[in-house]
Amino acid sequence: MAFSGLSKRIRELPKSNFPAIIRMAEEDKSIISLGIGEPDFPAPKAVKQALKNAVDKNFTHYSPTAGRHELLEAIAKKLKRENKIKIDDPHRQIIATSGSSEAIMMAIMGIVDIGEELLVPNPGFVTYRPTVELIDAVPVSYNLSSEDGFQIHVEDIERLCTPKTQGIIVNTPSNPTGTVLKKKVLEEIADLAIEKNIIIVSDEAYEHLVYDKARHFSIGSLNGMEEHVLSLFSFSKSYAMPGFRLGYAVGPEKLVNAMQQFHLYTTLSPNTMSQIAGITALEKCGRDVEKMRLEYNRRRKFLLKGLQGVQGLEIEVAPEGAFYLFPRVTNGMTSEQASKALIKDAKVLTAPGNEFGTKGEGFVRMSYATAMPKLKEAVERMQENFK
Amino acid sequence: MAFSGLSKRIRELPKSNFPAIIRMAEEDKSIISLGIGEPDFPAPKAVKQALKNAVDKNFTHYSPTAGRHELLEAIAKKLKRENKIKIDDPHRQIIATSGSSEAIMMAIMGIVDIGEELLVPNPGFVTYRPTVELIDAVPVSYNLSSEDGFQIHVEDIERLCTPKTQGIIVNTPSNPTGTVLKKKVLEEIADLAIEKNIIIVSDEAYEHLVYDKARHFSIGSLNGMEEHVLSLFSFSKSYAMPGFRLGYAVGPEKLVNAMQQFHLYTTLSPNTMSQIAGITALEKCGRDVEKMRLEYNRRRKFLLKGLQGVQGLEIEVAPEGAFYLFPRVTNGMTSEQASKALIKDAKVLTAPGNEFGTKGEGFVRMSYATAMPKLKEAVERMQENFK
User: Which strands form B364-367's sheet, in the order they lie side by side?
Assistant: First the structure.
């Protein structure tokens, strides 16, 4: 059989309706976007200056496939300080990646073979399921429900484990639900991972964005989890650095060291200057992170309150993390119908919940990474026009 | 079967001895490296300034998965001007990638399914074969021989085509051999691709680095090849921008458009600021490229001449491209033995030829992306001490 123009692995990836909805929104400049998960803040000043210094000093050459030594060491210190994850050898247990997107892909490549299974949250971040399918492995959904604020039930996970299960992706704080997983839940998952001998991929891209009484907890910090957790982190959200394409993974030496080797076959390394700027972010931008977090929280509270006045949408448990709300659509519309109606009637862009998995059907995702005046206008419009 | 710590797809990747040889070299500061394929020049001044301007203007946010519109348009103009490749719609026929490494991986993902075959050069660039294996497809070597300067014989290709063959990777100028493929050879391959209905992945990372009478020719510019060639380009070599991690692919709309979609599952996009700097490279750095090319050519001629005085190494046909020489080892040593002896006796680091495939056995790769004084010292040492 000759070349058909596209591999089956790609042809069979799920089709998304979200790009069409975004295009609908782009046609009308008055539309306010709560659709995209991107900080509206620019990168911190110190980070920008560090990038400029790096290029002045001609750090324009290749970096090692693990990442630059000084970055790996700064990451190890941050992990100890902020995540209580202890690293013996940063150069073998950490890899810097081109965004945490690449870390997700590389983790999946390192964990599952053809036909093997990886448990993924439903609803969950849009890339998990297709990335598993991309390499001919099998994503198996574990369902999350709004009634208990989308917490994980470990019995559900246990029931889904088969001899083919290699691991589970856990995401806290969660995109799209904003849920912060409870420490107790994470401890139960850790115990199960040891019992079943599977690996936990812990996506903590929103680690710094938790509010009120919620605390972010890194499952990789639990005793005895050294060989059972690969933790993924990102500079995109915490430090408002999405354009830098910088993330990292930390975990079992065997897996991470292999990722460092086959990095040559994906992107070799993240941008060299971004890596140097990343050191500044880790070491000097704690205040910037906190300032942004406080502003996100102010918006979150405002949006939560505002949604109480929107007839067709309902929040059952207020989420305490990331920068998303994930209200249920209560007027009988599907996610897609609701997103389209919100554009047409209220001129507000949201992401249809079904984009995040079948169990996201009947919800919409709203990002509050949008400046307060726009958020106010969006709430008013939804209160008046969405029923 | 529970998780063994690493997927089979990764466990079975070929092991490389080159890192161990590099470590040998790192132990002695007097060793001169001809080992790594990286420009010794910093990025052009205008590119560095453009990067700084981009960060000043807060281009620190996400970019579209295809790449930034203004970059795609600048690439389309460059392709028309320099490669004679005509683009109807840059936004659907071009994708900007995190280095051409990522373009190689994404191309392979878009072309081959489990068990399908992709023809790769032997010797050839180190990532082709493992990247095909990474996604459980099958790399099939076509052999190149030093006797005719490592040109491709289209009859060999024809013989290797099976019903499972989906495409062929062609690399000109070549890493590791420095060969510039002749236009006539490329025309024959184009005809064969149409006859067999396979796709050509044309890796042109070294497009600007050709010398003497050699001319770089883009197979994608041939009539009727719109649906049969995916051309890959890089900013790393031409513009001395490896740390920017920026490359691009151009080709059939169906394939490229799919790559734009599944970019979400690899790295989303290359670094945003790098993309803006890339526009400056394409539009304003022709003189920088030419200046570096002239210097590479000066070194190439010097090294070619110098190698005539090295007893254990021989060049049969002088290569006219990239920044590599690929001499045969004539003293009975294997590639690895020769590389180790060159470190030990002459204190010169080279890459063993077998790293580039079985047909690279008996050769070593030398990069002349090294400043002239060091190159002179390296030649003297090899002439005196390698026999």
Answer: B324-325, B364-367, B351-352
Residues linked to residue A170 through DSSP beta bridges, in sequence order: A202
Fold of A8-43+287-385: Aspartate Aminotransferase, domain 1 (3.90.1150)
Tokens of A339: 């997103």
Of the partner residues A99, A135, A274, the one whose CB lies closest to the CB of residue B267: A99
Please tell me which of the candidates B60, B165, B265 has its beta carbon nearest to residue A105.
B265
Burial, B362: exposed, middle or buried (Cβ in 10 Å; 0-12, 13-18, 19+)? Answer: middle
Q: Cβ neighbours of residue B4 under 8 Å, at least 6 residues apart?
A: none
> Beta-carbon neighbour count of residue A331 at 10 Å?
13
Which positions of chain B have pLDDT values less than 70? 1
Rounded Cα gap, residues B315 and A275, in angstroms: 40
Token pair 């982190």: residue: A233
| Cβ contacts of B261 on chain A, cutoff 8 Å | 13
Which residues from B are below 8 Å from A13, CB to CB?
Answer: 261-262
A115-152 burial, b at 16+ Cβ within 10 Å, e below that, comes to ebbbbbbbbbbbbbbbbbbbbbbbbbbbebebeebbbb
Q: Which of the 8 DSSP states describes residue B386? A: -
Cis peptide before B176 (omega within 30 of 0): yes
B305–chain A nearest CA distance, Å: 29
Please, what CATH class does the domain formed by B45-284 belong to?
A: alpha beta
Element at A272 (helix H, strand E): helix A272-284
CB nearest to A262's CB, from B134, B243, B272: B134
Domain ranges of chain B: 8-43+287-385, 45-284
Interface mutation target, options A265, A268, A367, A370, chain B, most CBs of B under 10 Å: A265
Burial A252-279 (b: 16+ CB within 10 A, else e): bebbbbbbbbbbbbbbbbbbbbbbbbbb
**Binary contact (B243, A56; C-beta < 8 A):** no
Residue B347: its pLDDT value, please?
96
How much is the pLDDT for B142? 98
A vs B: CB pairs below 8 A = 239
β-strands A247-250, A94-97 pairing: antiparallel
Q: What is the pLDDT of residues A147-183, one digit of tens each?
A: 999 999 999 999 999 999 999 999 999 999 999 999 9
pTM exceeds cut of 0.95:
yes
| Per-residue pLDDT at A104 | 98
The ipTM estimated for the assembled molecules is: 0.96
Nearest to B111 among A3, A112, A197 (CB): A3
Q: Which two tokens stand for residue A51?
A: 């990038």
Minimum CA–CA partner of A131 in chain B: B265
What residue spans of chain B are helical by DSSP H? Answer: 8-11, 18-26, 45-56, 69-78, 90-93, 99-111, 128-134, 154-160, 183-196, 253-262, 272-284, 286-307, 335-346, 372-385
- Identify the bridge partners of residue B325 per DSSP, sorted by sequence position: B366
pLDDT of residue A287: 98
Cα gap B356→A81, rounded to integer Å:
43
The confidence score (pLDDT) of residue A217 equals: 98
Q: Is residue A107 classed as helix, strand or coil in its secondary structure?
A: helix
Digit-coded pLDDT (tens) for B276-335: 999 999 999 999 999 999 999 999 999 999 999 999 999 999 999 999 999 999 999 999
Give CA angle at B21 (B16, B27), nearest 5°.
145
State how beta strands B94-97 and B117-122 pair: unpaired
Bond preceding residue A270 cis, omega within 30 of 0:
no
